[in-house]
Amino acid sequence: MGHIYNDYKEISFTDTETNYVIGTEAGTDFRAETIMFQPDQNCKVRFNSSTGVQHYINQNDYVSFDQKTVKIFVVRDTTNGTLKVWAEGDIQI
Predict the structure, then answer these.
(1) For each of the chain's 93 residues, which pLDDT tens digit applies?
(2) Would you give the distance in Å from CA 5 to the centre of its chain?
(3) What is the pLDDT of residue 3?
(4) Looking at domain 5-92, which of 3.90.1150.10, 3.40.50.1360, 2.60.120.10, 3.40.50.300 is its CATH number?
(5) Is 59:19 a contact under the CB 8 Å cutoff?
(6) Is 81 within 8 Å of 18 (Cβ atoms)?
(7) Among 65, 87, 92, which Cα is nearest to 2's?
(8) Stated pTM of the model
(9) Dmax (CA) of the chain
(10) What value does the CA radius of gyration of the chain take, rounded to a whole number of Å?
């Protein structure tokens, strides 16, 4: 069974942490239940809070999390790049 809401965004990241509210590109904010990332350069991602744990993601890897998420934060490791983000969920906020 699929989720009601889905979103896709390509986020440019640099040495300054950037945030993205899930659902912005889709035109409706929602809480993601599943989220997948693919960066073209190594980066670090946080869920929901700019003070949360940073998750390191290697360039060109697809990484999926079953994580209740309303906002993500991304910053480069060493080189600027782009992070592809796919999100799905059922609860609108």
Answers:
(1) 578 999 999 999 999 999 999 999 999 999 999 999 999 999 999 999 999 999 999 999 999 999 999 999 999 999 999 999 999 999 999
(2) 15
(3) 87
(4) 2.60.120.10
(5) no
(6) no
(7) 87
(8) 0.94
(9) 39
(10) 12
Burial class (CB in 10 A: 0-12, 13-18, 19+), 92: exposed
Please tell me whether residue 28 adopts helix, strand or coil conformation.
coil
- The two tokens of residue 47 are 């869920």
The residue ranges of DSSP E strands in 14-80, in sequence order, are 18-21, 30-31, 34-39, 43-47, 55-57, 63-65, 71-76
Query: Token digits for 86?
Result: 């796919």
- Phi/psi for 8 (5° steps) reads -140, 135
